[in-house]
Design brief:
Layout: H1 2-10, E1 16-17, H2 29-41, H3 54-68, E2 77-80, H4 83-94, E3 100-104, H5 110-117, E4 121-125, H6 137-143, E5 148-154, H7 166-176, E6 183-187, E7 212-217, E8 230-233, H8 236-249, H9 255-266, H10 270-291, E9 306-307, H11 327-338, E10 340-341, E11 343-344, E12 354-357, H12 362-377
Parallel strand pairs: 1-10, 3-4, 3-5, 5-6, 6-7
Antiparallel strand pairs: 2-8, 7-8, 9-12, 11-12
Helix pairs in contact: 2-9, 3-9, 4-5, 4-8, 6-7, 10-12, 11-12
Length: 380
């Protein structure tokens, strides 16, 4: 899809890319300034400690205690090259061949691949679409076997945008209390892009302090994807193992990016809130426009910056040249006929759906959804 989109752009076609999971905002100026000042001091040109600078780890621990109510010491924090590496570190340290990880699905595409890379087996767990795919506690309990090492989920969720409410997390914690050998990996990278106004961390709930690995970073909330700073907070034994592994694989992330991340975490949330409000308005716009398209059924997202419509009503339809057989062929059709790039839901564990990002301007979104509507209307 990306290659075809690039080819079409090179041919002069005005492709609108709704496939990318990235904010369109610039990194706030105060964060940029901190990075420039770090360079000017001349103090940050050497290798940082493998787990990150001590003041950054301390700031992250403070943030987790104050904002998330997660008890945390700096020694439990490992700063990595993005949240993706944080997740990989945990899985590589935790899993042995044959171990299972229960994956709340639809799920971010890298979860299953990284579990397999670590020698484990992903066990996909999916609830009813009417419940935003949220599994019931009974489903979770049944999915846990003697081989289960962990569960993993994101909230707000990529790709659905669903935010797990506190009651659901409490029910999850109750199930986990029956399985003391099973850890939970809570991916909170979209924490700030939450339209429910309330974010609950699983690690803050009673009895979960030593049972949860919290994954986060600065990429999404602070519009810092290219700076590549993520972090994890884990039980001390696991944090120490991840520090050792990271020291052998990559060592610490960029020294200058760490100084920028420190400014982000310690700074004001004013610009973050402004970005979130823009996302909220875009969510409402895109949802209303998709609702007007026949055969497109869109769960209402409460966070992140994605919509995840069910487009399976178009299976078997044709424009005379191409037959829509699945989400991949529909995405290719939309790219070719509407010049809109999207992502098939298969990779997320939901083959009837496609993912559209609203991490772009209102004008682009209006144009893209109009193009989609016209292209779908040509199918019979």
């Amino acid at each position: 899809m990306n290659q075809k989109a690039r080819e079409l752009r090179a041919q002069g076609h005005p492709v609108i890319d709704l496939s990318i999971g990235e904010p369109d905002f610039k990194t706030p100026q105060y964060i940029q300034t901190a990075a420039k000042q770090a360079i000017d001091t001349g103090r940050y040109f050497s290798y940082p400690p493998a787990a990150g600078y001590e003041d950054l780890r301390t700031a992250i621990a403070d943030k987790l205690r104050q904002e998330n109510q997660i008890p945390c010491m700096p020694q439990q924090v490992v700063v990595s090259n993005g949240a993706k590496q944080s997740i990989a570190n945990v899985l590589l340290c935790l899993l042995n061949p044959g171990d299972e990880v229960v994956v709340y699905s639809p799920h971010w595409v890298s979860y299953s691949s990284t579990i397999r890379l670590a020698g484990g087996t992903p066990v996909l767990l999916q609830g009813d679409v009417a419940d935003n795919f949220e599994p019931t506690p009974e489903q979770l309990d049944r999915a846990i076997t003697p081989r289960t090492k962990a569960i993993i989920f994101s909230s707000p969720c990529n790709p659905t945008g669903h935010v797990l409410p506190r009651t659901s997390l409490q029910a999850m914690a109750a199930v986990l209390s029956k399985h003391p050998r099973v850890l939970a990996i809570a991916d909170e990278i979209y924490e700030y892009i939450n339209f429910t106004e309330v974010h609950t961390s699983l690690g803050a709930l009673e009895g979960m302090q030593d049972r949860v690995v919290t994954i986060n970073g600065v990429s999404k909330g602070f519009a810092m994807t290219g700076w590549r700073i993520g972090y994890m907070a884990a039980p001390l034994w696991l944090a120490q193992a991840c520090e050792k592994l990271q020291g052998q694989l990559t060592s610490a992330p960029s020294s200058i990016a760490q100084r920028a991340a420190l400014a982000a975490i310690q700074g004001s949330r004013e610009e973050v809130l402004a970005m979130v409000e823009a996302y909220r308005q875009r969510r409402d716009l895109v949802f209303s426009l998709l609702e007007a398209i026949p055969g497109v059924r869109t769960p209402y997202p409460s966070g992140a910056f994605y919509v995840f419509p069910d487009v399976s009503d178009y299976w078997g339809f044709t424009n005379g040249d191409i037959v829509i057989q699945d989400a991949a062929s529909l995405c290719m059709y939309l790219l070719q006929a509407a010049h809109v790039a999207s992502v098939p839901g298969d990779a997320f564990g939901a083959p009837k759906h496609i993912r559209l990002s609203y991490g772009t301007t209102t004008a682009q979104l209006q144009s893209a959804i109009k193009r989609i509507q016209i292209a779908l209307a040509r199918l019979r």
